[in-house]
Amino acid sequence: MEYVIEQLKRIMAIPSPSGYTDRAANYIREELAGMGYGAWLTNKGGVMACLGGDGDPLIFSAHIDTLGAMVAEIKSNGKLRVVSVGGLNPYNTEAENCVVHCRLSGAQYEGTLQLNNASIHVNREYASTKREFKNMEVVLDAESDSAEAAAALGISVGDFVSFDPRIVVTDSGYIKSRFLDDKLSAAILLGYAKRIADGRAALKRKVYLYFTVYEEVGHGCAGAIPPDAVEIVSVDMGCVGDGLTCTERQVSICVADSHGPYNYAVTTALMRCAKERGIDYAADVYPMYGSDAEAALYAGHELRHGLIGPGVYASHGYERSHISGAKHTLELIEAYTLEQN
């Protein structure tokens, strides 16, 4: 788990909103190559690797793209109006620090997402103003008091905006950060690959790892599926909230989400693996969720599919999980690949 947490911190340090993921993908590919795997980039920019094994080929997928924003307008006051990339919510990104990534010059500028006219001592409508991106702006930490000044910095419409993850790992084992969805699971899959490479875990079936880069906008696993694959298990965040049983200290097994049930044989086998090996898990129905595994099916791939992940509270906000949840997820991944389904 020390390796998993180390990798999580490194991946978190690389901004990667959907559509701006090359650096993160190259880091993952190089890390896998350093373990001895023949990892490669897909046409869309994801990362694929085969860990070995024979028969009944299975894909474990996780996504390294995150929520973010894009510059939609350079305003006359030199501040920036943005639109969301993925499901970024203005209510929980207000007053967050961010970075504007200039696509033409390569320059980067820090700033803060604020409500328009953000001073409470000036704005009588501050409390009643609806938090929408059209009512908010990125205030740059640079001399920018006009549209011309912002343009002179090299900022243009279409530049990506990433947000500070603010990762903290507490002494009690809690992991707090933006974008645990899904960089925590990506780090877990790297930990699994390392265990295989170090000879500390075995494979009784062929296993691929697929790190996708467009999950937050809906088509991460829609392509590049190996032609011999028969099954895919998306390793994403497990939901924690009212009406669900999972906690941050468990691995969640999703039996159905807003798109419908997951494969009966796969979810049953995952639950059996966890129960027989004493892995702390919860089975839940996610009320508002869609996964990369489903994206693969909707794209026409004939696969059995499942979804698991460490319990994550406050999804798409400042999220929280626990090292125990990550550990149980890794244990379930390993146990499941010892089964022939």
In short:
The strands form three sheets. Strands 1, 2, 3, 12, 13, 14, 15, 16, 17 and 18 form a ten-stranded mixed beta sheet that branches. The chain is an alpha+beta fold.
What does this protein structure show overall?
Strands 1, 2, 3, 12, 13, 14, 15, 16, 17 and 18 form a ten-stranded mixed β-sheet that branches. The chain has helices spanning 2-12, 22-34, 147-152, 180-197, 264-276, 292-298, 323-336, and strands at 40-41, 47-52, 58-63, 68-74, 80-85, 97-101, 108-115, 136-140, 160-163, 168-169, 174-177, 207-212, 231-235, 238-240, 251-257, 260-261, 281-285, 304-313, 319-322. Helix 1 (2-12) crosses helix 4, helix 4 (180-197) packs across helix 7 and helix 5 packs across helix 7. The mean pLDDT is 97. It is built from seven helices and 19 strands. Strand 6 (97-101) and strand 7 (108-115) form a beta hairpin. By secondary structure, it is α+β, with helices and mostly antiparallel strands.
Secondary-structure map with pairings?
Elements: H1 2-12, H2 22-34, E1 40-41, E2 47-52, E3 58-63, E4 68-74, E5 80-85, E6 97-101, E7 108-115, E8 136-140, H3 147-152, E9 160-163, E10 168-169, E11 174-177, H4 180-197, E12 207-212, E13 231-235, E14 238-240, E15 251-257, E16 260-261, H5 264-276, E17 281-285, H6 292-298, E18 304-313, E19 319-322, H7 323-336
Parallel strand pairs: 3-12, 3-13, 13-18, 14-18, 15-17
Antiparallel strand pairs: 1-2, 2-12, 4-5, 4-9, 6-7, 6-9, 7-8, 10-11, 11-19, 15-16, 15-18
Helix pairs in contact: 1-4, 4-7, 5-7
